[in-house]
Amino acid sequence: xxxxxFLVCILPGRIQMITSKYSRYCLITLTTLAIxxxxxxxxxxxxxxEIVRPVKLVNISAAQGTEITxxxxxxxxxxxxxxxxxxxxxxxxxxxKEAQTIQRGELIAKLxxxxxxxxxxxxxxxxxxxxxxxxxxERLAKEDAIASxxxxxxxxxxxxxxxxxxxxxxxxxxxxxxxxxxxxxxxxHASKRQTISPGQxxxxxxxxxxxxxxxxxxxxxxxxxxxxxxSNDQRRAYIMLDSAPDQMIEATFKEASLLADxxxxxxxxxxxxxxxxxxxxxxxxxxTVEIQTSSTGDNARVAIPMSAVTxxxxxxxxxxxxxxxxxxxxxxxxxxxxxxxxxxxxxGLSQDxxxxxxxxxxxxxxLKVREWK
Length: 373
Fold this sequence. Notes:
Layout: E1 6-11, E2 14-19, H1 20-44, E3 52-59, H2 60-63, E4 66-84, E5 89-93, E6 101-102, E7 107-111, H3 114-142, H4 148-174, E8 176-178, E9 183-188, E10 195-196, E11 201-218, H5 219-223, E12 234-241, E13 244-256, E14 266-273, E15 286-294, E16 302-305, E17 310-311, E18 316-322, E19 327-335, E20 342-347, E21 354-358, E22 368-371
Parallel strand pairs: 3-22
Antiparallel strand pairs: 1-2, 3-21, 4-11, 4-15, 5-7, 5-10, 6-9, 7-8, 9-11, 11-14, 12-13, 12-15, 13-14, 16-20, 17-18, 18-19, 19-20
Helix pairs in contact: 3-4
């Protein structure tokens, strides 16, 4: 039998002679491995997947006419009073405690009444004597038994005695201190058996049924408030305590200072509110006042979140989303000067636009996005 062509394969340590039958098998195997390797390299160099960035969107028509501004505030009592005696003496009774709720007319403190009672008794005796002398002089004057000047003298003595009696009665009344309104004892400034001077503060009484919150409103914010009452602007105010930020308490405007602070150029605005029954609200607590402004009709304005605006001092822009392709494009906008979490757009947006409300800093022209909820 003739010897067929053969392929010499060099292996470690020896040489083997393989017939053409096995040569074809080796060739097929090597070819398969080469094709597989090339296919792997092709897969590694394929085009990268399209990037779709999740963002929060806002519809301009939905945001139209709503402006929200927030300012830090401090809670205070709408009614508070430092109570004191108009007379001095020894503090005999002092039954109240700090943080105690007290009703109008309820006893707060009482001085030792003995000295006041003695003065009152003496004033009563003097008045009775002066009154008797005057009555006698009046009878004698009708009989022309005394001169008219004597009657006038008795009348003067009676008036003086009556004045002293009134003062003694008032002093005794003033030795008892009662609550002028319903409230809470915020602080005690004296202690029992202490000698008290007239006008010395004894307690601080506050009314917690109606509280206040003061904010400092920038002049720039006030300047942007429309003067025309026919603009139909509607403003509502809410109080949010730092200790309970999720609960909004409706507040009403009380008063405003018309003189700006010279250093900060702000005006102090005061709001009143009734604390809810499920919250303990005390003066001195930190809070936030949220002012919501809405407009209707032709005067409605477009408000967008501050987070939607990017740019610098010279140019501001937003990212507008094409709802059919979900591609973003940059658009310049003109804004009103203001403060708060929303800004008023005066030019650059229309009512049908959809813009990126959050995530604008990571976008580029023509990037595809999807709404993140």
